[in-house]
């Protein structure tokens, strides 16, 4: 009798579990991906998506539905890849991962002026120190797996590979005329009235007068300039070519002779004056100048492909299933429905970029 009751309770529990399975894809409990040792819920996915949007100061309401769906799927695949890699990494654990993670976190903290600033950044990112520590530890474990499984399988690019890439991409090695300059900015708010603008222009002209009387440009820039990116360096900017600065800044810079200082001029940021330190004519970089850069690029490509193949194998071993419903197909274009160009996708993670426009 007792065995029968036990069996009935077991069957009833199974029925209840099946009957209560979440079927609504928008429910936080809905499982969007699963596999051996892997289970990702809608709540977990939403948290990652919101975090990614926050990094770019975006909200869900500002992202068109097709792009949001695409972003969700990309992030879900990243989460799956991270989990399958972590499961594999833990088969040969990195013994000192916890210690290394703590050391790395402490180094990160030193980039902030104080503990309060660090806590504010954590709150802005909607995370905690403990969660960040766990993420760092997991990344260290996955990185260790990649070193063990990916790097040994990679073949180093050959000189022939480098030469081929150089020959097939001639536009990459063309450099337009560039200018190396330093400047002083007296910032003016866009909403400033005429009197305020006149006062700011007068301040810029007074600073220029100091330079013209013999004071070091660097000293004046450090004392007067409102450009945080160059102020500490005496107003010095990274070398720039045409198209990287606002039009009037570019016009003045390229029309000023090396060693000369311009008059005060205006841009949307305020009033500037600049000194051209050097100019470089347009040229095509030689293979010898970019060989190391090409080699590094080819290595990254090979590493990316080897990583993709490893993750593909791990996903197969884990029998991963993506349960997130595919986005609805776009409406067909008819004679009465003019085609509409797709809205821009959410920005990709930032990469090293050209100097900001002035």
Keywords for this entry:
358 residues; alpha+beta; four-stranded antiparallel sheet; three-stranded antiparallel sheet; 9 strands; 11% strand
Order of neighbouring strands in the sheet with most strands: 5-4-7-6
Oligomerization status of the protein chains? single chain
User: Any low-confidence stretches, pLDDT <50, length ≥5?
Assistant: 11-19, 333-358
Structural class: alpha+beta
CATH topology of the domain at 177-281: Chitinase A, domain 3
Corresponding CATH architecture of the domain at 177-281: Roll
Global shape: extended
CATH top level of the domain at 177-281?
Answer: Alpha Beta
Determine the fraction of residues in helical runs and give it as a percent range. Answer: 40-55%
Please explain how this structure is put together:
The chain is of the alpha+beta class and 358 residues long. It has a domain at 177-281: Chitinase A, domain 3 (Roll). It has 11 helices and 9 strands. The protein has helices spanning 2-19, 42-55, 65-89, 97-109, 115-124, 129-149, 159-168, 194-212, 217-224, 247-255, 287-317; strands at residues 31-35, 38-41, 174-175, 178-187, 240-241, 265-267, 270-280, 283-284, 321-322. Strands 5-4-7-6 form a 4-stranded antiparallel sheet, with helices on both faces. Strands 2-1-9 form a 3-stranded antiparallel sheet. Strands 3-8 form a two-stranded antiparallel ribbon. It is extended. The relative contact order is 0.13. Mean pLDDT is 86; it is low at 11-19 and 333-358.
């Amino acid at each position: 009798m007792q065995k029968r009751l036990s069996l009935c309770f077991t069957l009833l529990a199974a029925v209840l579990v099946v009957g209560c399975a979440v079927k609504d894809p928008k429910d936080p409990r809905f499982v969007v991906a699963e596999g051996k040792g892997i289970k990702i819920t809608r709540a977990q996915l939403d948290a990652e998506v919101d975090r990614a949007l926050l990094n770019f100061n975006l909200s869900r309401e500002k992202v068109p539905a097709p792009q949001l769906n695409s972003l969700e799927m990309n992030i879900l695949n990243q989460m799956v890849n991270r989990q399958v890699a972590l499961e594999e990494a833990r088969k040969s654990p990195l013994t000192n991962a916890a210690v290394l993670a703590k050391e790395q976190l402490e180094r990160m903290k030193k980039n902030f002026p104080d503990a309060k600033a660090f806590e504010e950044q954590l709150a802005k990112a909607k995370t905690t120190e403990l969660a960040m520590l766990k993420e760092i530890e997991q990344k260290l474990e996955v990185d260790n797996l990649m070193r063990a499984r990916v790097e040994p399988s990679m073949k180093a690019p050959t000189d022939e590979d480098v030469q081929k890439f150089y020959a097939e991409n001639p536009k990459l090695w063309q450099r337009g005329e560039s200018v190396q300059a330093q400047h002083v900015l007296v910032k003016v708010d866009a909403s400033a009235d005429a009197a305020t603008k006149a006062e700011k222009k007068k301040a810029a002209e007074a600073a220029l007068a100091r330079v013209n009387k013999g004071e070091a440009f660097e000293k004046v820039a450090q004392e007067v300039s409102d450009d945080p990116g160059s102020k500490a360096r005496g107003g010095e900017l990274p070398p720039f070519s045409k198209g990287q600065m606002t039009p009037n800044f570019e016009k003045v810079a390229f029309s000023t002779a090396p060693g000369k200082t311009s008059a005060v001029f205006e841009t949307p940021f305020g009033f500037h004056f600049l000194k051209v330190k050097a100019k470089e004519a347009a040229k095509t970089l030689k293979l010898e100048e970019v060989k190391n850069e090409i080699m590094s690029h080819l290595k990254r490509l090979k590493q990316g492909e080897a990583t993709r193949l490893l993750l593909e194998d791990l996903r197969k071993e884990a029998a991963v299933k993506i349960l997130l419903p595919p986005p609805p197909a776009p409406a067909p274009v008819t004679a009465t429905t003019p085609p509409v160009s797709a809205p821009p996708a959410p920005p990709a993670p930032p990469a090293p970029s050209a100097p900001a426009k002035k």
